[in-house]
Amino acid sequence: MMRYWIKTLGCKVNSVDSEALVAAIVADGGEPVADIADADVAIVNTCTVTAEADAKCRKEIRRAARCEHIRQVLVTGCAATLLKEQLEALDPKVLVVPMGEMSERIAANKKLPGFFSSSPLQLSTHTRAQVKVQDGCDNYCSYCIVPYARGHERSVDADAVIARVARLVDAGTREVVLTGVNVGSYDDPDLPTLIANLHERTGIHRIRLSSIEPQYVSDALIELIADGVLCEHLHIPLQSGSDPVLSAMRRRYSVAEYRDLIARIRERVPSCAITTDLIAGYPTETDDDFAASLDMLCAIGFAKTHVFRYSPRAGTRAAQTRPLPPRTVKSRAERAAAVAAACAENWRHSLTGHQLEFIVESVDSATGTAQGTSREYLQTSFPVPTGTQPGSLVIVADAR
Fold this sequence. Notes:
Blueprint: E1 3-8, H1 12-27, E2 31-32, E3 41-46, H2 51-66, E4 72-77, H3 78-82, H4 84-88, E5 94-96, H5 99-110, E6 128-132, E7 134-135, H6 146-150, E8 154-155, H7 158-170, E9 175-179, H8 191-202, E10 206-209, H9 219-226, E11 233-235, H10 243-249, H11 255-268, E12 273-280, H12 287-300, E13 304-309, H13 326-350, E14 355-364, E15 369-374, E16 379-383, E17 393-397
Parallel strand pairs: 1-2, 1-3, 3-4, 4-5, 6-9, 9-10, 11-12, 12-13
Antiparallel strand pairs: 7-8, 14-15, 14-17, 15-16
């Protein structure tokens, strides 16, 4: 029996791809192991969204190749698509197979319908599960390499998604997170219809989106949140609070449009938590542009902000522009992160006096506490009665 160790880097889409890959390997008689010391084959599912991500991938590949008992290092994911020759040159043990090709091989050899299959391994004891409904992106933002790695947008057949979620519900899943590279572009027929059908036909308790671009947040989607069909949480990337920078980034909205969107969401669903992404140090970002971004963070009051330092990616339009000094980028990222942390703390304080519904994900019987996630995507620990099990729904007052 072949023993496999897998390391997944990057986004939630990569995590779902890895689950499907491991499921296919196990179905063919392989045995996944948690410790690389027990493996015959190492798998690295790579990310290439930043230069730092590339460096982490190379580090993991080299680490696996140095293990004498590892016979082969199988490399897949986004970096495998764009950097095949460079990664294979790292060590003779390395075999690079882009994820698209991997999916085709699995479909052909294991008789699985691509990466949208469901196997018993994937339907285990997860109380919250990720379901991939879309892949690829056609936006081509000036700084982003992902469309070149993931290809054009494509949606998973709605019936296949519904069947997948129904099986997860039968296995005890209480919440599904719909994931994709550009989820909002789902077109079979559209995202609000898919969500409404999932709710009606599967009985899933909670549905959440991993992330959605501003231009795809429709009134129909907001109504699903207001009706309790979709969780009261949206991750809506901002990237910059400056119109000149948004234009240079080739983002498809203005600051005013983003503000208006958040106002419409909060008017209809005051309790909706909004989280976001921000890029600090884009090449054309001036001091005034950066100040506008900080003002935007404060004005919106995001529940959480992921701050990224701008990282040039060869092959993108932004890489042709001279970058800002590294010190400037670092300083701006640190300042933005400090403002973001203060906003997050303010949001947590705003929950005082509110009762939130949590799904219990793990229980520490020794302390009588549980770890869980609220509808608003607050992840924290809280006291629970003796006998509480993962998957239970618990109402918690003043959770922070």
